[in-house]
Amino acid sequence: MLILGISCYYHDSSAALLKDGRIVAAAEEERFTRKKHDTSFPINAIKYCLKSQNISIEEISYIGFYEKPLLKFERILFQHLEKFPFSLKTFLASMPSWMNEKLRIVKKIKKELKYKGNILFIEHHLAHAASTFLVSPFKKAAILTVDGVGEWTTTTYGIGEGNNINLIKEIKFPHSIGLLYSTITAYLGMSVNNSEYKTMGLAPYGNMNKETNPYYKNLRKIIDLKEDGSYRFDMDYFTYHYKDRMPSKKLCKLLGGPVRNPKFELTQRHKDIAAALQIVTEEILTKILNQVYKETRCDNIVIAGGVGLNSVYNGKILKNTPFKKIWIQPNSSDGGTSMGAASYIYHTILEHERDFILKDAYLGPEYSNIDIKKFLDASKIKYNENENELIQRIAILIYENNVVGWFQGRMEWGPRALGARSILSNPCTPEMKEILNLKVKHRENFRPFAPVICEDDALKYFDCDEPIPDPADFMLMVYPIKKKWHKKIPAVTHIDGSGRLQIIKKNQNKNYYNLIKEFGKLSGVPILINTSFNIRGEPIVCTPEDAYKCMMGTGIDYLVMDKFLIRREDNLKDAWDSEKYAKD
Q1: Most buried one in 190, 414, 445, 460, CB count within 10 A?
Q2: Would you list the DSSP string of 436-473?
Q3: Do 359 and 31 meet the contact criterion of CB atoms below 8 Å apart?
Q4: What DSSP assignment string belongs to 310-341?
Q5: 301 close to 141: Cβ distance less than 8 angstroms
Q6: Is residue 146 assigned to a domain?
Q7: Residue-number span of the structural domain to which 119 is assigned
Q8: In 84-225, which residue ranges form alpha helices assigned H by DSSP?
Q9: Beta strands 14-19 and 231-233: pairing type?
Q10: Residue 303 phi, psi (nearest 5)
Q11: Does 341 share its domain with 407?
Q12: Tens digit of pLDDT for each residue in 503-558?
């Protein structure tokens, strides 16, 4: 049986294909359109999913959609009517997309895909819950979903057992941890639904002591937080429920000044505000999780929703709550709900037994040697082809402080580059963070670069939970780096001594694993810098063409695509005819 899941029209549109209970393909639309956080109908992602299995749309038994549009529209109407006439401008601006797209999703699916089968709508937070529990290694687990907002719900918890998911309690819009995080992100002059992870990275530069951070005290004044984790906001400090901006004038006054202009420097005040937000977020989530354990008495916890990408907090959960095991799927935010919708239909509605665990994130497109060679030759790109000694050569290049684009196998599912579409470099060189920013990323200097390490070496270098939780495979856990290694790997050691590590197992990605080990033989430290293969403002690369363009448009020194090695300097004088390749 084939089931297609779809997510679109808010952010991170995606599609996922489930075949006889197994996720066989999944991708976000942005990777194909090259428009970051693309919200449009995921026609390209859908076409990829079908093509990956050599099937047609007629073979799909069900299509699952990640939310209930009518229920969400009810909330939109309510929130704008409640704040009328102040909400009129935002209401009028939002109506065309609702009338033309969001309320016509059935017609859109049937027209775009020429689909005549069954279409089922799964509530947003149920799709989140299914996306993490039904593909987890647990037969029974407590479930927590936290994001900005679905239809009405912003936070919910419950329990999953076998095929069934029972969400027990919820908090409804406008009270939302996710929207609080987005509001402060906007206040700090960064983009909503895109830069929350930057706020998380900025926080350690601020005062992380809640006793002495004045902004923590101010934020707590506007949140009524109970011991069971339930919370309500003083909505006088927010405008996201009726305007197209998030912080109110009252919030700006509380935080000591106007919204930061992105052109201006981040001050210590901004850093302290980011720290206060992270402290508050962790405090709320800890109280919720303690209550979830109290009610479920389950040792396992699974998490989904955009807040599930807060890797700093994820690394503290097992230490600060009674839970013993944790699972978070690699695409925890809205992009992952297409997988949840498909899984919920197959396992919960149709009652098929679970026999699949999502063990890696390599669910996207891949390109064969023939595909890559065709592209290189058609574009007259100079390259070397050497399969036997390639790993050793790349390790030497990285050891010599070259920046390497690494394009191997199937593209990752989710926002993290995990060794399929990565940029790799030397963590032992103190200047490497600046080199990467200068040559490639052109991003804020406060943001850390992530270390990748093989599973069998991790406990030597990091203070991880034991055993190391599976979400670390997806770069979803931040852990302290042991102090003795701080000076050895300065380029991946954040200001607070932590690292957002990726654990790699040999059976997940053999070449990637072997490269890290080979670099360790040269450097004495089996760790690499792993950052996403893209430049600032663009999605991670998908195709060989994307990868080559990214290298030539930046200062990446080498690109390795499968067994082909391309040196940037060898191709600087040659014109690259992408239009000719497209025609071929």
Answers
A1: 414
A2: HIIIII---TTPPPEEEEEGGGHHHHB---SSPPGGGG
A3: no
A4: -HHHHTTHHHHSS--EEEE-S--SGGGHHHHH
A5: yes
A6: no
A7: 2-135+334-349
A8: 88-100, 105-113, 124-133, 177-187, 196-202, 214-221
A9: unpaired
A10: -130, 145
A11: no
A12: 999 999 999 999 999 999 999 999 999 999 998 889 999 999 999 999 999 999 99
Q: Which two tokens stand for residue 154?
A: 């912003």
Q: Does 342 share its domain with 399?
A: no
Asked whether the beta carbons of 144 and 288 are under 8 A apart, the reply is: yes
Whole-angstrom Cα distance, residue 181 to residue 223? 13
Residue 387 sits in the same domain as residue 491? yes
What's the CA angle centered on 352, arms 346 and 356, to 5 degrees?
Answer: 80
Q: Apex CA 409: angle with CA 506 and CA 515, to 5°?
A: 45
| pTM for the full predicted model | 0.95
Q: Does any domain span residue 155?
A: no
Residue 434, φ and ψ in degrees, nearest 5: -70, -35
552: CB partners within 8 A, 6+ apart:
568, 571, 572, 576
Structure tokens, 286: 């800890």
Structure tokens given for 62: 């069900």
What confidence score (pLDDT) does residue 87 get? 85
Residue 268, class by beta-carbon neighbours within 10 Å (0-12 exposed, 13-18 middle, 19+ buried)? exposed
Backbone angles phi, psi at 377, to 5 degrees: -70, -45
- Name the residue among 333, 339, 281 with its Cα closest to residue 308: 333
Q: Check: CB of residue 51 under 8 Å from CB of residue 15.
A: no
3-class secondary-structure state, position 106 = helix
320, 306: one domain:
yes
Sign of CA dihedral 377, 382, 386, 391: negative
Complete edge-to-edge strand list for the sheet that includes strand 421-425:
384-385, 564-567, 558-561, 404-407, 421-425, 527-532, 450-454, 498-504, 477-480
**Sign of the CA dihedral running 61, 63, 64, 68:** negative
> Tell me: the pLDDT tens digits for 99-137?
889 999 999 999 999 999 999 999 999 999 999 999 999
